[in-house]
Amino acid sequence: MEQLAEKLKAFVNNRWLVFVCAMWVQSCAGFGYLFGSISPVIKSTMGYNQKQIAILGAVKDLGATIGFVAGSLCEILPIWVILLIGVVQNFVGYGLVGLVTANILPDLPLWVLCVAIFVGTNGETYYNTATLVSCVQNFPRNRGPVVGILKGFAGLSGAILTQVYAMINFPNEAALIFMVAVGPSIVVIALMFIIRPVGGHKQVRPSDGSSFLFTYSVCIILAAYLLGVLVLEDLVGINQTLVTLLGVLLIILIFFPVIIPILLVFASEPSPPVEDNLLPKPEKQEAGSSEQDADEVILSEFEDEKPPEVDSLPVSERQKRIAQLQAKLFQAAAEGAVRVKRKKGPHRGEDFTLLQALIKADFWLMFISLVLAAGSGLTVIDNLGQICQSLGYSNTSIFVSMVSIFNFLGRVGGGYFSETIIRKYAFPRPVAVAVAQVIMAFGLLYYALGGPGQIYVTTVLTGLGYGAHLVIVPASASELFGLKSFGALYNFLALASPAGSLIFSVAIASDIYDYYAEKQASLRQPISGFMSLIPFGMMIH
């Protein structure tokens, strides 16, 4: 009995159990991606025009990415409190929207719905921050795969919630909003005391590589299963009994990764813990050198005084000449003849605060690239319902689920790809960002040119590229600026999404769309027949 109690304690404190529970939370935490299915209901119920829907979409994106509060609170409050705050916001915000669209409450002004959607979607930031911070601290040497898998499940949550909605067979589409308010809240409350840092860097096992491989396999099977279900529903049409059965199989697949912590704790022999150091161990050095390293100086005239032929000397001779020159410059510095510039603040790879990171060009370069990529991707995702209707597709939920699935694959694949090019080829992780941007650009260009099957190609490539960005950039930030303030850094970078959405969707696309819609209406021409003839910016909103 005592041994069983020890096993249960080890199971609850196992880092793989925390990781699996974080996957389950993330599988229902990306409910903002359902806005493409929710927006037509709000538009028809409230009688809004496209500009008003675009404003709601931008507010939704803003709520999903402003996580300063969550990132700051994560450093001072327990993880379960962070998750509980997210539950309250999620339930209250989307619950109010559901009551309005179901005509239980009278019609409210647009600004009230904006506040409700902002508050409800902002609950995502608490879910994301709590799960990512806990798991990145538990798996410090596997940041790419961990962030990729967790963000992947968040991207897949739109398709998962859509299938659960179809399985329950609600009487009307407005019930989807109530499910968004209630479903994630129940899941998070059930798991909020398990998800936390458990000293996972001390639980390294030789089998971790196999465990990650198994997790990746489950992810791929899950995505392929959901894609197969969508194709089956689109091409054949299935009855409610089969929909329910497929939904149950989906839930079983989501639960499948829990096998990993069960086998590690209950079916394997106990092994001595191996610690995975958060930072590389410092090399041994002479006693006199440690004091010098603690107060390292850079002599600004060193490069000017170094003779050009020094670089062409053999290594041993070059080091000797450089040492002599440094000694002379140190003596000159002591006499006041040379400026001394001292290094201040942390070095790259060490722990930065948010304010320290904000003065680095690397940080702003990542932020701006994410603004451009996430803005164009969100413009397509948020307006996918209207895009499909303009092309003559009546069932828009299929394409919303498709972009969610490939968003998932982009996140999982982006994490794996970026980790591979680092470990095997020694390329920096931002190279993977460039690859993702090329993929997304090709998808948008193909849609703009109106190629055959444009909606399918655009949905697939936009989902892949957009999802990869959201994984690779946070992992890069954690490597450059450390883990201590990762919550604050991650949530600041997340601001790139609403900033991009505000520029591309609200300021550009919606105005062009409404202009041409009014122009076509005055000419009494059907909008759907004309949409294939106008450029991308005129169609996407």
Biggest sheet overview: 2 strands, antiparallel
The number of helices is 25
Lateral arrangement of strands in the main beta sheet:
1-2
What is the element string, with H for helices and E for strands?
HHHHHHHHHHHHHEHHEHHHHHHHHHH
The dominant shape is globular
Q: What share of the residues does DSSP label as strand, in percent?
A: under 5%
Question: TL;DR of this structure?
Answer:
With 541 residues, the chain is mostly helical. The chain is 72% helix and 1% strand.
Note down, in words, how this protein is organized.
The chain is an all-alpha fold. The chain has helices spanning 2-12, 15-26, 35-46, 50-65, 68-73, 79-101, 110-138, 143-168, 175-191, 208-235, 240-255, 259-266, 287-294, 302-305, 315-334, 354-357, 361-382, 384-390, 397-423, 430-449, 454-481, 486-493, 496-522, 527-530, 536-539, and strands at residues 297-299, 340-342. It has a two-stranded antiparallel sheet with strand order 1-2. It is globular, with a radius of gyration of 26 Å.
